[in-house]
Structures are given as C-alpha cells and as structure tokens.
Fold this protein.
Amino acid sequence: MTEVDFYKPFDTVNRPCPDVPEPSKDILERDVLFGKDGTINLPALQDHLVREGRLAIPDITEICNRAAAIFRTEPNVVEIGDEVRVAGDLHASYYDFVKLLEVGGDPATSQYLFLGDYVDRGFFGCELLIHMLALKVSYPKTWWMLRGNHESRQLVEHFNFKRECLYKYSIDVLNAFLSVFDTMPIGALIGERRFFCVHAGISPQLKKLDAVATVNRFRDVPESGLMADLLWSDPLPADAEGKDTIAFTDNTARNCSYFYGATAVRTFLRTNSLVALVRGHECKDQGFEMQFPRSGQNPFPTVITLFSCPNYVDSFKNQAALLIVKKEKIHFRQFTASPHPYFLPNFIDVFQFSLPYVAENLTSMLLEMLKYCSSDDNTASTGSLAERRGDILAKIQSVGRLSRMFQTLREENEAVVALKGFCDGQLQKGLLLGGRDAIQTALSSFQKAMDLDKENLKRPNAEGKKPDISDEHTVGSLRRRKK
Amino acid sequence: MGNELSISEDEMSDLMNSTSFSQEEIKRMYRKFCHLDHDRNGVLSVDEFKLIPTIASNPLLPRLIGIFDTNHDECVDFDEFITGLSVFGSDSTDEKKLKLLFDVYDVDGDGFISNGELFYVLKMMTGANMSDAAIQQLVDRTILDTDTSGDGHISFEDFSLSMKNRKVLFETVVGQMSVSNKV
C-alpha cells in the first residue's frame, strides 16, 4: 500500500489491503457441519472458524447440549490413561489453539487434557469453545476438559466473554456455554494415580482425594470451600516468607482462597500416593514452571504449572507449553504466538472507536477557525460590546465544552488500545498519565506485564462490579449474510 | 454596515432560510469568511485553511474541508461555509448532525461509506499507531456488521440505524452537539 495524500482524491471503494483475508460472511451450513449420522465435520468447522465464520445458533446449542450430556456422565475426577498431552489456560486465543493441535498431533489419535480457562481476556472464546466442545462430542474418551475459574458467571461478566457472546451471537449462546461449564469435571488423574490435575491447586479441606468426589459440581463456581479452592488457589510464590514451613495462608493475589506451601503439597501427595500436582491458572514466561522439588535422590517437582496461551493478552511475550506425558516420562513442548485478526477492546467497531475523536477534532477546529478570524474583527463590528461578545463564537461555546469531553473519551480509547490486553480489568491511571513511553517501558518485560496485570488476577468483589454492558448488545445482531 | 459586504438580498434571504442564523450573524460570518479568504477570490482553498496555525496540522483537517465542500470542487464558498456551520447551530437537528458525521467518512460523497473510505479515515486518525492489516480487519468487520443490504458498503440509513442502536454513543456524539445558549 502506498502513502496517500488525504487532500487529493484516492481510491475510496476498494479494500486497500487485498492480501489481508476477508472475514467470512456466511453461516456454516448445517448439512456441512453435521454428517447424516450426527458426526461433526471437524476440518470444515475449523476452516470456517479460522475465517471468523459464524454458526447458526441452534447448531451451537446442539453442540453444547451433546457435550454437556457427556460431561454429565463423567465423575468429578476423571481417570485417564498414561499417554496424554496436557494444556493449561487458553483464554480465548483460538489461533494459538489451532497451533497447539499442530504441535500436539491429531486429536483423532492423541489423547488431550485441558485444565480450564478457555474464555475471557482474548477475543476468540466462542470459536475456541465451539471447536473444543465439538472435539469432546467427537472423541469423548480421549478429549478431556476440566473447569477453570473463568468458566463461571461472575468472571465472564467481569471480563470480556459475555460481551463477546453478545457481539458475535446472543445471550442464548452465552447461557448455553454457561450450562456446559456447570457440567465440566474439576479434576483428573493420569495413569496409575501418578498426577493429580486440576485448574488451580489443593485446599485445606482436601486430605483424601475421595473428598473431591463428594462435591456437588453441577452449579456455578462457589465463593469458598473445596470446589472454589480447586479452581482458585496458588502455590506460595518463590519469594514468599516461610514458603518451606507454611502449609496454607490467605491468597492475597486472588482476594480469595489460599496459597499452598511445599509442606501442604508433600502431605497431600503422600496421603494419596501421587507423584505431582499438575495445574494451570498462572501465566509463566516459559509456558511452564516446576516448583517445590523433592529433596534428595529424586528431585522431581511436586507442582507443575502449565500455561498454554502464548503472548498472553497480546502483551506478555511468554511462550506456551504443552506437557507430554508418556508412561513414566514427561517433557514439555513449547510454542510461540500465532497471528490473529485484530479486535479493538470490548469488540467496539470503527465508528465507536473513531466518532469521539472525529467529533472532538471537528469541533475544536471550528472553534479555532472562528477564534482566528475574530482576533481583529472589532473594527467592522456594529452594536455594543455585549452584542459582539454574543457573536457566533459565544454561540458555539458549548462546542468547546463538548470538545473537552470528547478529548476524554478519545484519550480513554487510546489508552485502552495501548494497553489493550489489560483493558478488561483495572487500568493503572498513573501509568497512563506517563504517556506512551511509560506504557512501552512498562510492557517491555514479562515481569512488568505481570505487575501491570496484577489487578486482573483477583476475584472481583461486589463493590468492584462493573456497570451493565448497556445497549451495545444489538450491534452484532445487525450482521446480515448472503446465503 | 461594512462597505466590503457583498451579499445580495436574495442570497441573504436564502441563507437565512436554509440556516438558523440571523441577518446580523450571517454578515458577521461573512466578515470572518473574507478574513480567511486571503486572495479574495470568494472561496477558501486548502492552503487558506492551512494558514490557520492551530488547525494546520490536525489530521482531520482534510475531512473538515471535505464536509464543508459539498460540491467537491476542493474549495469552500460562503454558501458551503455557512451551511456547514449551521449544523452546529441551535436549530440544527440530530438528523443533520448524523449526516455531517456520515459525510466525514463518505469522502467521495457518493452516499455510501465504502471500504477504502473507512480505511483511510481511520488511518488519518491512527497514523502509525495501528498496522494497515489491523485497520483492514476492523474496517471489513465494521462494514459486515453495519451494512444491512449486504452490498459491501454503508448507506446513510445503515449508519443511522447503527447509531440509534447505540444510545450511549449516539447521545454522546450527536445528542450533545446541540447549542442551547442562544442568549
């Protein structure tokens, strides 16, 4: 694309970047999606979703219902074979999930286990869930999905998955997904009780593993208790005081649940004859981290954290990892981020993004123009001073006030774009006032991205609840497609 | 009355009919217009707009001139000048303000916001802060979501409907563009 002089006429009609693929206009045909025997055409589905194509809402609910029916038959802790690929948080990064399948191999022949957090933060949670649930329907005994803390009503509302569903589909689709979340198992055992897999970690209420089986999981993620801890807790940070002696302490990073120390993990593993705890829930620079190694001859880690969303929220520059378990042996496969189509924060469109800027600039230019020509306008003027003051400039004074308001709106837009990944949580005001350089510096390292994202780790409380999403729901429903 | 004023009575009554301004206001604005019209040829050129230091480098100046220049002759005559200003006047309507905002994006004035127009107007504003590919993806999706007839561009009806479906944006951008202090 060549530079354009905006004062001269230019090609107004054609797409300026013909090499960028256009999003699909079509809804996937039902008879392409489903075979006569009800099987799902996975290659066609993936091809369609990659092009941002949509499905008919009844077809989504059908996939949800069929997956939920399978989940419902599964125990709270599923037991799976000792050859499996395990992945941590995915967070709506569909294009990285496609890459993950390339790295891990065809799900038709490879067993997979996912540790939850499929939605929020990224922009392709619908595509990811539809594809993953279709895989569950297709391979119910080798495709395993656990529930994460983001698979809850509270978090999808606080973060951006609800908004995504409303933009791309409707509240019915969100509700269909939420119903599936309520059926997902919460733990997995790999092999002969070797690895206990869960989204977040252990709980002071968890002595014997059997306790998990007695939990009623068919509900939203509770505020506290065993199920909440399994989906919210964290290992004590490496720099925490007393990390070798403390068993459990309040989890200040999450505003709920617990930190667990090495002693608590050792006790739990010993009691239940397990080798290690495998969990997700935390972004890691390398995509994985091994913590609390055993002392002595067998330094095997007791906690393995997995994170499978590379360049988390397009900002962390972290790698993603897949844990490959093959009988007694484990290793990690790392992968980096794949390009994905660009979305503005909260799925706003070009008009919502640019109109405040347009209005601000037009009005301020008008003001400046009229000011400029009144600077020596007194000689020819008739009437009193008061009348002169009441001229056209005064008449558009409210334009000036308006202009300041637009400026704020526009600056907010710019801020959220600069800090796009963090926009759905709390923004650090001080940093924004520091301007572009401060933002760039702040994002320059993984550790700094972690610091910036701290607020988003916390469980939102009632006071921190965001206002309702207002009327933008209808935007997506305007989309029409030609059959 | 200044002796340089040269608006005929017919022109004056036309302007008073088509805008919300009084005779006195139109005369005052004519003086302002003449003040901007350095070469006294009766129209404001792009270069004459650029002589106003505080707006010369505004990235949207081409579109400000564009919305005044309704006959697309790349300059602004007094009729166009005062008609454009009247959209911000107290007797203006939401419809007129919406149309003005639509015209910011409808660069060639064919009544539709096409792919290239939406792309370049967004690019004017974002400069180097957003990649061309990202702009193209946003533009493609916005057209797909807003164009109800499926013909690949956005009509004024599509644009109005989209704005009216978004009360917060609509009220912020259009609703408050009214000027109420005609004191």
Remarks:
- The two ends of chain B are 23 Å apart (CA to CA).
- Strands of chain B lie at 43-45, 75-77, 112-113, 154-155.
